[in-house]
Amino acid sequence: MAQESRSEPSQQQQQQALEELQEPMYKPLMERYILDELKAVRQDQQKLREDVTKQVTHTQLDTADRALTYTTDTINNVFFIITITASILVLVGWNSLRDVKNKVEDIVNSRVSAITMEYEERLNILEEKLRVRSEEILSNQQKISVTNEVHSLWMRANLESDIANKIEIFDEILKRKPEDVEAIAYKADALLELNQTAKAIALCNQALDIDSDYGYAYWQRACAYALTHKHADALADIKMSLEYSPNLRNELLHESAFASLHDNNSFNAIVAGDKN
């Protein structure tokens, strides 16, 4: 009985032991709950990591598969183009790249030659136009120079009182303008002043060969004929001169070479016709 009493605490001892407790008895239950929650979190993280790894792996595999497919398609297309090109080259007779090169060189050379010939023709045409234009400019310059010189000589002739010097001036004019009928006629007039009627008539004929409508040449020849008493020829030329140069009518009675015609009825008829 004594041993049983020692082994089993009394109610008072149990009460005392409960009062001496400093911490609650349910603390191990809280720790267990926290451990279980931590374990669940670690499991969720592990599952999330596995899911992410699977997604990344699938994405990488899809990318690699697409890249491989693109590369394969590209290679197939390249070989397809090469095959078609080779087939075309075989069909047109170009069996090698050397043939292609030679053909291209021939085409380029022929094209360059055609372009060169075209531009040479254009250049020749341009050179011809420039040559013609240059000749025209030079010719015009020469004409202007001759015109200025002739104008100067005419001014000298109008101021010159000596008949011989005046004839020399007319010769200078005719050197520059051999077909100047006015200079020829005025030279004939000067020769008549020196009584060289034959030379004067020859010059008048020369002027009329150049211009058959030049009235003053007929007038000068009429003067020469009148001085040599060829009245019929003189009257015929007077009529021709008045036909082409009506203003000469005012000089009929003032021309000294026609003095021998003043008693001629035909001449007076011409003068009378002028008065009417």
UniProtKB/TrEMBL annotation:
Residues 1-19 have a biased composition (Low complexity). Pfam families: TPR_19. The keyword Transmembrane helix applies. The keyword Transmembrane applies. Residues 1-24 are annotated as: Disordered. The chain crosses the membrane at residues 78-97. InterPro entries: TPR-like_helical_dom_sf, TPR_rpt. Keywords: Membrane, Transmembrane, Transmembrane helix. NCBIfam families: TPR_END_plus. This is Tetratricopeptide repeat protein. It comes from Pseudoalteromonas haloplanktis (Alteromonas haloplanktis).
